[in-house]
From TrEMBL:
Record-annotated Tc1-like transposase DDE domain positions: 27-116
InterPro entries linked to this entry: RNaseH_sf (IPR036397), Tc1-like_DDE_dom (IPR038717)
GO molecular function: nucleic acid binding
Descriptive protein name: Tc1-like transposase DDE domain-containing protein
Origin: domain of life: Eukaryota
């Protein structure tokens, strides 16, 4: 499993989760948010305002996770504000993961370390213009989602 985040002008490093690890709220807070996301965001945004958006995975919507965001003064979209099962409005899901998967799947990998190396190399190649286009597409997708009252929509 791999975790990553994007903004219109940058991307986090990829975070690899060891096989067999269950991503519960404790792991998510300590290993993803505290160890990777927050230091990256503090450096990237340098005090400028930003909002964290994530999907509705159980560890993401856990009460303890929401409390962590509040304690860290991280502005975030709450699970109540974000529609469940909404990959069509999450730029990682509707664009970025697919781009990375297509690049990485174009050749076989001898082992897990080879796959990780390829993921890191291809992740680094995704240009900021691609990130900007994905993030800029979100408002249009949100409007379509609202028009369909959270149901399926085509873009």
């Amino acid at each position: 499993m791999v975790w990553a985040g994007v903004t219109a002008d940058g991307k986090t490093p990829l975070v690899f989760v060891q096989p067999g690890v269950k991503i519960d709220q404790n792991y998510y807070e300590k290993e993803i948010l505290m160890r990777h996301m927050k230091p990256w965001a503090d450096n990237h945004f340098s005090g400028a305002p930003w909002i964290f958006q994530q999907d509705s995975a159980p560890a993401h919507r856990a009460k303890k996770t929401m409390e962590w965001f509040a304690k860290q003064n991280v502005d975030f979209i709450t699970p109540e504000e974000w529609p469940a099962n909404s990959p069509d409005i999450n730029p990682m899901d509707f664009a970025i993961w697919g781009i990375l998967k297509a690049k990485v799947s174009s050749a076989p990998h001898a082992n897990l370390d080879d796959l990780k190396a390829t993921l890191i190399k291809e992740w680094a190649k995704i240009p900021v213009e691609t990130l900007r286009a994905a993030v800029d597409d979100v408002p249009k997708r949100l409007r379509a989602c609202m028009k369909e009252k959270g149901g399926n929509f085509e873009i």
